[in-house]
Amino acid sequence: MQQNDPLNRPETGAIIDFRYLEQRNAERKANGQLDVRPCLIWNVRAIEALQLVAVLPILSGATGARVAISPAERAALGLEHTADVVFEEANVFLWPGPHLQPQPDRSLVRTHKASKQLLEEIAAAMTGRTCDIVFRP
Predict the structure, then answer these.
(1) CA angle 80, 84, 85 (to 5 degrees)
(2) How far is CA 110 from CA 33, 71, 87, 106, in A?
(3) List of domains in the chain
(4) pLDDT computed for residue 4 by the predictor
(5) Is the pLDDT of residue 6 over 80?
(6) Using one digit for the tens of pLDDT, what is the confidence trace for 53-66?
(7) Integer CA distances (angstroms), 124 to 48, 65, 77, 113, 121, in order
(8) Quick check: 110 and 17 in contact, CB under 8 A?
């Protein structure tokens, strides 16, 4: 993996393929195999030389607190036609972490990032709500 490459640094709005762990399945699946799914990097915090990253899952047929992605943006991001960003919970981990699935070119992030408009819509939808956190080792 090219984790030190500037193109592989985590940035808000980047899309990664990640073994996302839902809180309701944390005990049952923590040691098991998880499916890789696209996730939106929502926040990156630098702590000295470390980078703490929070990701939101992108799911098809999601229910609950979510923001729809426009059809044009879904296509540009290479997502399924019913994919939404779910913001009821987030996974938090140290970058790069063992749960990332590299792209075919071995990069850690997808080529296209989420639009500023989508990020603003998520921020507006999250206002006044809490987001559960699942910490990933």
Answers:
(1) 125
(2) 22, 18, 20, 10
(3) 6-135 (2.30.30.110)
(4) 56
(5) no
(6) 999 999 998 888 99
(7) 30, 12, 21, 19, 5
(8) yes
